[in-house]
Specification:
single chain; MetI-like fold; cell membrane; membrane; MetI-like_sf
């Protein structure tokens, strides 16, 4: 007896195989690009970091032992990671109300706000940084305003300080925080707040119990982007921070360009990258937890 196969049963599975093959074929150029321009340089960086001396004559873990054995190196790493925490916290503090205001505004106001929000992205980072040098300088806008209002007798030292650097980074990285928040807040159902108000919740209680928990995915995404950008902002750290403070991007530049110690610079880069990736993974875990909380 000859077996008869229903055409409709085998058709979809058979048709899916060529489709999957085509998808992998389309992904190959991107995978090759990723391998050539990211994976290969990363492997070379790891290889250079394994040279035991600056002359690159022998291999060993001497560069990593040197880094972790010196309290100065650990202090630079810690101050860089802490800088990212400060910038991220302040960016969230100022960015959340701005994103909330955008979602509660009319079309004209939204157009004006979105222009203000994305304006830093439309300007060169060098131009933005020099603008902050003018603002924070001894004869800058802030000092002139404080002197004219009688709030200071002499010009304050704002430039080349951690406070000035944090202020500049907060403004520069603000779009990275606000845009994910706008996306999340725009998707919230306004009926939820109306329901909470009908049940007796005031504005603040409704915000803390409804709006804030539901916006956690946007908060996590914004914090992730802001933190990664803040700790690696070499130009802003160098120009606004000056030579008074040393952070990891500047330290790597110093070891590479000034001292020509490529193995130690590579080791510093690997340690810094792993540290930042650790923080990013923590944000990812928080993001997954927040999604579970939202869908609960």
């Amino acid at each position: 007896m000859t077996a008869i196969t229903a055409p409709g049963l085998a058709g979809p599975a058979t048709a899916a195989r060529p489709r999957i093959g085509r998808e992998w074929t389309l992904a190959l150029p991107l995978a090759a690009f990723f391998a050539v321009f990211f994976v290969t340089p990363l492997l070379l960086l790891v290889a250079v970091s394994l040279y035991a001396d600056a002359e690159m004559t022998r291999f060993g873990l001497d560069q990593y032992i040197r880094f972790f054995g010196d309290a100065f190196n650990l202090a630079v790493l810690g101050s860089t990671l802490l800088l990212g925490v400060k910038v991220t916290a302040l960016t969230l503090l100022f960015g959340y109300p701005l994103a909330w205001l955008y979602t509660r505004s009319g079309p004209r106001m939204q157009s004006a706000l979105i222009l203000v929000i994305i304006l830093p992205l439309l300007t060169s980072v060098v131009v933005r940084t020099f603008a902050w040098i003018v603002i924070l300088g001894r004869d800058g806008i802030v000092n002139n305003l404080l002197l004219s209002l009688g709030l200071a007798e002499t010009p304050l030292r704002l430039l080349y300080t951690e406070g000035g650097l944090v202020a500049a980074l907060v403004q520069v990285q603000m779009p990275l925080m606000v845009l994910p928040l706008i996306t999340t807040l725009s998707r919230l159902d306004p009926n939820l707040l109306d329901a909470s108000a009908a049940l007796g919740a005031g504005p603040w209680r409704g915000f803390l119990k409804v709006t804030l928990p539901l916006s956690l995915p946007g908060i996590v995404a914004g914090c992730l982007l802001t933190y990664a950008a803040a700790v690696t902002a070499f130009i802003t750290q160098s120009l606004v921070g000056g030579g008074q403070m040393l952070f990891m991007p500047q330290y790597i530049y110093q070891q590479t360009i000034t001292l020509h110690n490529w193995p130690f610079a590579a080791a510093i880069s690997i340690v810094f990258m792993v540290s930042v990736l650790g923080v990013v993974m923590l944000f990812n875990l928080l993001g997954r937890a927040s999604k579970g909380y939202v869908h609960a």
